[in-house]
User: Fold L-histidine N(Alpha)-methyltransferase from Sphingomonas brevis.
Amino acid sequence: MLKTLEIVDPAFRADVLNGLAEPIPAIPARWLYDRRGSELFDEITRLPEYYPTRTETALLEDRIDELARLVPADSAVIEFGAGSATKTPILLRAAKPKAYVPIDISGDYLRESAARVDAEFPGLAVHPVEADFTNHVDLPAAIDGMPRLGFFPGSTIGNFVPQSATDLLRHFRSILGTGARLLIGMDRVKPVDRLIAAYDDPKGVTAEFNLNLLRRINRELGGDIPLDAFRHQARWNDMMGRIEMHLVATRDVEFQIEDRRFSFAKGRSIHTENSHKYGPRGARLLLLAGGWTPLAEWTAPDEDFALILAEA
Ligand code: AVJ
Assistant:
């Protein structure tokens, strides 16, 4: 039988082995997104309980004309993450930039979404950049001299603890340069029952998304974690203003990854994701701390979600 060899990502390996050995075990959320994880996230965005994607998309759609008036002509749009098939075209159609630069760590996703945009916008110069946007990024020389609009939708900023979030915003500022603009989506604080429902849906898609991380560890790192020994949990951490995803041991369990043994007592958890929620002041303060001055803000009905345009 032919076995497809997956090349072990040394960063994944290090994050898992070190993260599981921490006093409070935690694995960074970015590792949730292998192919299956990305498919499951896609499915999450279509769940009735998961409001962020459809709320942000509707908000963008409703207010795009106003927004486009604040974007200089002949701009380059730089998107942090491969473009979403629904949100990106709304912005490109209205803002009519000269160039579009999606930046993503996953080459496959990047090429797919770049090809889609290229086909839909014949006059637009599309320059995909395969890179981890938290690290050094070289923008293509082709956009030199164009006014820049960064686009960071999806409330992805919420995955970062505030210290890393401000570091990231400052990093965006150094990539885009002084005078650049940034359109960013941030999820708002709301009643806990709605938040929990969004991150622990009755169909169990989010549970599957979370547990898929253990599958990935077993497959890519040769682990033997019994999946039935962990269950998905969404918690609201009020002090930190965030939803946390955990994988909680349902019984005492031992497992091995490479030559390392781990033991989890019943009830101990692996923290797998943070999703910070911001109020109006918190959102603006985060941007200011990251070197961005808010210029305009649009919020969805019931203040469920905010899009903020800021200037470097
Ligand atoms: C893609 C990071 C915005 O935090 O809401 C959805 C990921 N996790 N359900 C979020 C996620 C569980 C999502 N982000």
